[in-house]
What does this fold into?
Amino acid sequence: MGEDRQATFGADGSLDTETPPEAREGTTDWGEPKGDGETDGGYNRYDVSSLLQKAVRRSDEEVAAWAAWELARSGYAWNLWDRLHLYVVEDLRAGQDVALLVERYETLATERWEPDGWRGRICAVHAALACARARSSRESPNADEFFRNAAAARADVRGTDEDPVADFPVGDLDPDGEFDVAFDKHTAEGSRRDRGDRFFKVFGARVGPEGEDDRSARWQRLNMALSDVEYDDAEVAHAVEPVGEADRWADPVAFDGRDGDAGAGDDEDA
It folds into this structure.
């Protein structure tokens, strides 16, 4: 079984895929030989691994710390670190710095020290605590599942007059629609519409809704003043105005097509 996936078991409790080889060195805490997939405390390592994930997801620091410690001390550090790297993208809110911490703790535990030794175990506990203390969220797997379901729903009604029961948030992504601003000089459609530097600066480069800080806004104004394109005061003001909280894609300032410089200037990928 590839360790990029979680173990999945059938109704009879057996693995659906081939079980990876397990190290059986040593004995349990009471001196009995360890079985396949057994931890030093006599637990099934799949159960402990699953418990660790649920503890991270539910922000239970003590249980997460124990589960990580149990896996590390029992010779399953490889399983522990693989799982923790999955958890930071599956069960935590995007942007959590803990993803970098987990990698650093793993490096210390597995490359500098022995993963099942004292230092390796406390690295495991540190990593588990950091994950449990981070903000939990299932947003990424929920998004992945919804987008897959929406794709299937769209495909089901392809070529018919029916609307899909679920759709992507951008619909068909048509020019002149809600997301028209995306069709700037960095796209073929935008180039055909002669949307060059003026369109990009005034519309496509806006940020928000927090907006630019004062320094960045000043630089943008200066860049527009020094440009070969002549911008009026309304265009400069709109370029640094934050997008709206309620409607991030609205651009009420009319674009009069005075470009003639499509493809020049900013270096962005199509």
